[in-house]
Amino acid sequence: MMTLSKALSAGQAKSYYQKEYTSSKENYYSEAGEVSGRWSGQLAEEWNLTGTVQSEQFERLCAGQDPHTGEQRIRAVKSTRAVNNYGEEIMTSEHRAGWDATFSAPKSVSLAALVGNDERIRVAHRESVDESLKALEEYMQARGGGNNPAITTGKMVAAQFEHTAARPDHKTGYAAPQLHTHVVIFNMTETVEGKIRSVQPRELYRSQQYATAIYRMNLAEKLQNLGMRLRSMPAPAHLESRALVKNTCVKAVRVVKKYRRKLKK
Prior knowledge:
The protein has one domain (2-80, 89-264). 39% of the residues are buried. Mean pLDDT is 83; it is low at 242-253. The chain is globular. It is α+β, with helices and mostly antiparallel strands. It has helices spanning 10-21, 42-46, 55-62, 107-114, 119-137, 202-206, 208-225, 245-264; strands spanning 2-4, 8-9, 38-40, 81-83, 89-91, 96-104, 141-142, 151-152, 158-165, 177-186, 189-190, 196-197, 230-232, 239-241. The longest helix is centred in the last third of the chain and has 20 residues, at 245-264. Strands 1, 2, 3, 6, 9 and 10 form a six-stranded antiparallel beta sheet that branches. The protein has a two-stranded antiparallel ribbon with strand order 4-5. Strands 7-8 form a two-stranded antiparallel sheet. Helix 1 runs antiparallel to helix 3 (55-62) and helix 4 crosses helix 5 (119-137).
């Protein structure tokens, strides 16, 4: 499934990059080392962001800057101390760097991929995430400014980080195998006029169920093509390895069609 976080500040995103997104602790295989991110989205392609995510480019995008030159493309907002109407000292929010969209494989799929050491399943997960992001990107919007409506751009710049372990247990420190991908969707998009604007995230939040359906539909099909028998499970599991295909695919297709009809109105 896909879940979308609250907006990440520039400071949060940079900290997550160093401590979580690229951390070797997020690998089920301890010998695998640090996690390497990869670029995603049409805007990333147009900006010639290819291959492994570099920390400097990541941090520049977090700050709303050109990833190559460091030129400020989105108006920078720094956090400041202020006093609210109740006389309390507060810190104002800083620039929104983006959002963390997390795609999580079903438990049994994670076990088959990681404990069973089946790289084909990881590839299926990876490709399903890509397909879901392509569908989600069609509805990317820029802020119109003032009272102007949002502008659909269909362009995203994002960084993917594939992890193979859940957060370690607080008491034991054990990190269970869990295949999931963090996708940092940066707060930058481009209009047809070539203007770089901040993202209007309303449709991203509305699209979580849609993106989840696309991911599940693709994953079920790919796993079936690998010869796996799958079965549909009640929420929140939905997809589990043995016979999940038929019912899950039907439900996912219905969600996709319903969402597309809604957008056309």
